[in-house]
Queue: 3 jobs
Job 1
Amino acid sequence: MQFSQLGLLPELLRAVDDKGYSKTTPIQEKAIPAVLSKRDIMASAQTGTGKTAAFVLPLLQLLSQDRDNDKPRVRVLIITPTRELAAQIQDSVLTYGRYLEIKSMAVFGGVNIKPQIRQLRIGTDILIATPGRLLDLVQQKAVHLGHVGTLVLDEADRMLDMGFIPDIKRIQALVPKTKRSLLFSATFSNDIRALAKSMLNQPLEIDVAPRNTTIETVNQKIHPVDKKVKSSLLIHLIKQQSWRQVLVFTRTKHGANRLVKALTKAGISSDAIHGNKTQGARTRALAAFKNHQTDILVATDIAARGIDIVQLPLVVNFDLPNVAEDYVHRIGRTGRAGIKGSAISLVSADEIKQLRDIERFIKMHLQRDEVDGFEPIEQLSESRSLSSPAPARINRRMNKTRSKQRVDKRGSQAQADSSGRSSQDNRNQSSGQSRSTTHSRVRSFSPKPANQRSRSSQGSRRQMS
Ligand code: AMP
């Protein structure tokens, strides 16, 4: 569908045109009219399929049609789980709203609060915030939320899980009861879906893809390998396949640091992004990776949600995540905006439980490829049937794992990663892929390195970034 068929303002169509988008994505086709109709919405769309524009474009339209002449007041509040995502959404608001007179700003932890307070004094129509910093600002009377007409929870399932829900409840008590709510996420477990629905007023549910699936544009596989040689295998693959622009996920911050050390020692340019780094270091590491100054970015799940790295060819899971949803979000950093990507997981025998949970969650078995010279001594057990055990049990167990992580580690990774406040803010089936376990041996698996991609794709990277 053309954007012009959605009844958007000429200023917005011009901004979309500048970005080079020719057609709407499925989530945009459904969500833009729904947001314009001012209903509560609960939308799930696979990651990387244009969901930011799906809510930002119509919200900009509604705001500009309903202009206050006075000082801008916060009328749209967008809450995100990480600082990086808040900054990214702010960039999108500026891009899509460049021909309109709508004020917007992002606030998040880890940076000086004073400039944020000064800017809030001038006023803003759209406020994008991580929860803890927002509550700090409210407490310091730097922001008033009494005029919020629309509350958006991006990555809504994360915002409603055990780690964030107390903050979200506090924020909900600060905005008018008459506000409308828009919930967007790539994954919704059954429990979170039920909780979300109870918070909404006759929501319109939009599902543009089978629930909790990975996108077809991501080619997924695993390399079974012994735990102690994972770093060597990764270094071997990076060198042998000339990998550039790889986002590598580790489970822990220390694991990320250790891996960067090993990569650096092997002469591979890499950096880490995690919650123990200052916000300046996080921002610099992400920018250097996006600008192709660093080949490998090693990240904890801080970078799993929402972060858009245009034309990222490859995601590697150095460790599998403990929570199956996180696998979907991690690999969703590649294969975005319809472009092909690959996801490779290095899986050791002790990770079989995580692998089985992930396979059940994404409803497919992942192809297994052993790499010559790195065949595991400790064999990875077989996958299980995808239908057992019952999904309710899985969800309960996953929620338990997640809440335990959050509660046990208050002040540590999950929360520090999120947005920088130690207590509060720190707070598909693939078409070509098999449904049954497959084993094979590989000599090469080679997503095209960035420097070998076509001229036209390089051109569109510049246009879309
Ligand atoms: P998002 O899911 O919002 O993070 O968007 C993922 C990527 O898709 C971003 O790089 C957007 O710039 C890009 N994008 C969003 N909408 C479109 C569209 N209609 N056509 C092409 N690319 C798009």
Job 2
Amino acid sequence: MESTLPILKFEETIIETVDKNPVVVIIGETGSGKSTQLSQILHRHGHTKHGTIAVTQPRRVAAVSVARRVAQELGVRLGEEVGYAIRFEDRTSEKTCIKYLTDGCLLRESLSNPELKQYSVIILDEAHERSLNTDILLGLMKRLVKTRSSNLKVLITSATLDGTKVSRFFSTCPVLTVPGKLFPVEVLYSSESSTSFLESSLKTALDIHIREPPGDVLIFMTGQDDIEKMVSKLEEKVLSLEEGSCMDAIILPLHGSLPPEMQVRVFSPAPPNCRRFIVATNIAETSLTVDGVVYVIDSGYVKQRQYNPATGMYSLDIVQISKVQADQRAGRAGRTCPGKCYRLYPSTVYHEDFLDVTIPEIQRSSLAGTVLYLKSLDLPDIDILTFDFLDPPSRESLGDALKQLYLIDAIDESGLITDVGQRMAELPLEPSLSRTLIEANELGCLSQALTVTAMLSAETSLLPTRRKGTEKKRKNPLSDLPDGSGWGDHIQLLQIYEKWDQANYDPQWCIENDLQVRGMKFTKDVRKQLCQLMQKMAEGPLDVQSNRKQKESGQAYRRLRRALCTGYGNQLAERMIHHNGYRTLGYTSQLAQVHPSSVLEMDEDGCLPDYVVYHELITTSRPFMRNVCAVEMSWVMPILKKLEKLNVNKLSGGSGITEENEARVVEPLGSPKNDAVASKAPDD
Ligand code: ADP
């Protein structure tokens, strides 16, 4: 199959252009072979003689999957000549000459090695995704090609990116276009927008199965929940089709949180006389190419995380896709033969409502981690305000990031990175968690903080799900947790891990307790790695084992809560006196409730704690705080004092973050005890 991939016909042109230019942009249709073949082409032509080829991917799944494929094509063992590195997992060795890694991992490597000297070629793959980290890398590469002009080649590849814009960004570097070999795709619009894209997709899928000739069906859903629903509905309906299709059906989910063995199933072709239904997120738009697709069902929606710097709140919205995304989705139907794309919306929606291109992540994310990263780079000429971005972030989100970093002591009042900030940047964690670890180390509860941080780094929640109505009948093995679990989710996460530890990390214990074995094992591994990083950073040896078993858990919990209060200094909330919930402090005050899944408990007066910190503020049906932990007023006050003194303009070195966007300080209400009952939000 490889020999027919379009990119291979351009091998000579690619090599010639790369030889003559430090930066080359390569635009090619999804599936033309950019991710799997470019590195091999350069390897064949000697580019691995003096260094490794790095290929960045915005998604972990893609880094692993493409590395596996390339190792297979070259007939080598994964982790040897061809390897990959994603956060908390490094499968490379001395032998590795082609390394797939997430864009975040390459950024991290550049902290200890700003010139990225081990690499002879850096390929920024999937640049059209415009992930936050790829955008930062674009800026860094621009600088790096100047300092390493003689021995570094940079390639930027994309399926849809505006090549001229990137070329201009890199002093009009050449743009090579690999013509795709797409077959025509007939686009069929619905006459009106459907009220339920799940139902419409289901109906369309069944119609295809009954009426259309062989060919796999790719259905775009918005997220894991929709996918699971769709898979089970399809299974039920396809099996019960009476005068149904004469073909069998296989139904496969495809999303980023699937275990790897499930992900690779989409790469096996359908058996004879069988149609595959692949129900996927936008991961199948460009990241992973599924062969054999002839029919595409496009709901027109995508789930997008959006950050609001004024409130510090995330929303996970189902939004309309852009025209570029819709075209990509349609293109998936024409890779092997002429295909059909069923758009579940009218053509006027496509033409009039859809944005031309997707908004880059840098313009809809919290930038605290990015700003800290840029400040920690040992490069005097790089500054957040002058950094060369392809599309700059808003001044408001830069101001918000500076404020966050200041409140957790990562930068001082003139915006300079502190010692604490420098150490924080060395940890592959979001700033709130790295700050918590550093504080916990000072307070003597590092072991507990490492556990909580690792538990929060797992991809899915590790709190056992509470099933409605089944509590009584079900054995609840966590019911004998020691006192303190009512302090909130962080403490509960810690206690769960400690119980597993006492059960000698037995997988069966996880199963009996409704906990994901894979997630728990991942946590154990992450904990070990974070522990090693902390050890490296500390001057003397750390005592993280002995206090693991310590009896006075009450004291350790209190210290841990205190460390969390420091780390989450920008994520504080105070209980409302006359309201059913909390309001956030430090931002434009936002009313929010404790998420129904939380284990935070009320006291004997029926009141929730006066102050809490939260891991995340997210709007679904309404604003919720997820993963909350009770903290004490005396710990909160110094942070509020700091907030009062805050001058965002000074934090940005006096150079232009507008003052009107400064945080409005919210006066604490004082102790709201014995007042109106604040309760947890009911199940939504
Ligand atoms: P592009 O980067 O241009 O989108 P890729 O290099 O990802 O193209 O894909 C080229 C071909 O390799 C496609 O036919 C795709 O299905 C196949 N492929 C990619 N990854 C895998 C994998 N892990 N297993 C099997 N086939 C794969």
Job 3
Amino acid sequence: MEPQELRLMLKDLESDLIERKASLSDPDRIKISILLADITTLKVDAIVNAANNSLLGGGGVDGAIHRKAGPGLLEECRRIGGCPTGEACITRGYHLAARWIIHTVGPIWRGGNNGEDDQLACCYRNCFALAEQHGIKSIAFPAISAGAYGFPMERACRIALAEMSTFLEKCDEIEVIAVCFSTKAYLCYIDALRGL
Ligand code: AR6
């Protein structure tokens, strides 16, 4: 596909997304944006890191966040001492534009019958719980587990969006951004939005 065609397609999808948002029961309460971006560049109160149990950094979004935040982040993560799968913890944002980083550890995909869906849903719930506790008003999520941990992107985006909208049903104070690092992720979120 030519880049021009892809741009046009994304433009169509964006209009479709706006219509979709408008068709939800109370559009003023739905504050989910789907954004193609590098999460480390966003000026939001908090960005979420798809970390591992050690919290000591790694590849993917975790590596990008640690590189940009600087060594203070690694030090604080070391003091925390790790994070179980499905849980979350919070640190300062250091050199990032975001004030906070919420670190969560998604499940490694093992075929789908080993509690992966529930663990992934827990990641989102625990991140939102920390966001509420810290008065965070805007939060950006990467597609947790959908990279190195192998969770199928379509399924990961469906779970993410379901948890985001469930949370926003009870708390409409927080702006939620689903960050996509590829057009595939973007298209999966649009599909998931259709299924809401
Ligand atoms: N901004 C937004 N999204 C990103 C960025 C970025 N800068 N970089 C990658 N993604 P992954 P996981 C997307 O692998 O699957 C690490 O080594 C990426 O395209 O970062 O939860 C940790 O230390 C994908 O859609 O996280 C763990 O060991 C999504 O973020 C392990 O990887 C998640 O991909 C965690 O694996």
